[in-house]
Design brief:
This protein is an alpha/beta fold. The chain folds into three domains: 63 residues, Nucleic acid-binding proteins (OB fold (Dihydrolipoamide Acetyltransferase, E2P)), CATH 2.40.50.140; 56 residues, no CATH class; 164 residues, Vaccinia Virus protein VP39 (Rossmann fold). It has seven helices and 17 strands. The strands form three sheets. It has a seven-stranded mixed beta sheet with strand order 13-12-11-14-15-17-16, with helices on both faces. A six-stranded mixed beta sheet has the order 1-5-6-4-3-2, with no helix packed on it. A hairpin with a 2-residue loop joins strand 3 and strand 4. Helix 1 runs parallel beside helix 7 and helix 5 runs parallel beside helix 6. It starts with a strand and ends with a strand.
Length: 359
Amino acid sequence: MQDVTCVVEKLVYGGKGLAHWNGEAVFIPFVVPGETIRARLLSKRQKIWEAECLEVLEPAADRVQAPCPYFGRCGGCQWQHLSYESQLQWKQKIVAESLMRLGKIENPKVLPTLASPKIWGWRSRILVHGDGQGLVGFYEPDSRKVVDVERCRIADDAVNAQLAGARKTLATQKADLELRSDARQGFSQVNPGQNEQLKKLLQSLAGPLAHEHVVELFCGDGNFSRLFLDRARIFVGVDSSSVAIQHAIRTLAPLHPRNLAHFFCDDAAQWWSRYQPQTPVDLLLLDPPRDGCAKMVEGVMKHRPKNILYISCNPATLARDLKFLKDFAGYSLVQTQPIDMFPHSYHIESLSWISKETA
């Protein structure tokens, strides 16, 4: 191990700061761009160092005091030491850089990050861990060691009330327990207030586009599907979760005025490549998990929807998928809107409009 002095240049996806020492990249958590720091080099892979910050010699103006007593030990948040305005700016920059570097898109139109309505107490569900020896809380970064947590600053009051009871339940158990402020099972958006803003954004963006025939892949239980039920003449939703699809069939399909809303439990990529519609698909809506939807390109080349709206939670796989759509299917990116679904963390949601008509 060696201690070095370096200047933090920027933040990267994953939450760490990037600096250089002796011409080699150094990644350091819990730092702010522009700061001069003293860091300890911990390990090296090729020409990339992992390091820890020992001392901030010259702090940046964007550095703030983290209000959570567990910050730095708990792996749930990475950016509490960064002002919220700066968090939003860096999420926009990280998305833009990913699209340029990985997606090979020149000068992508990346809009300013949409701020969360609440930056504390926004989280509607958490997963807590008991280590069987009295510690109940969250894992340390890159570890399975439990940090004992009495109250989570980013969780809402209902979840924190449950956490108090969970601490008693898990005190002698080595187990995991999900706590949530709603009673619904299965996937749901973790930031309800920001989810509502995302739905409004999606609705306004889709409004002027052709949407007679809409297909939504990875539709879940219909969080976004409901927006199109009284707009599209034909709506089809697909997801691999049988519980989610059963919920959508029961609660959403009957709402379509012409009974032309259909939900299928299937692998999205396989279904999309097999789909044989009677009329062309106008609008494709994608909301994949973190690994993206590279396997959808074959179906896109087959169906040629006029527009694609892609909700992403990973800038790297978004950039990769956009490159595939550009190189193999002739689509182009119109714009990307970063959305701060996860304040004080490096995670970035975004909504991208991809079009065949402007290619």
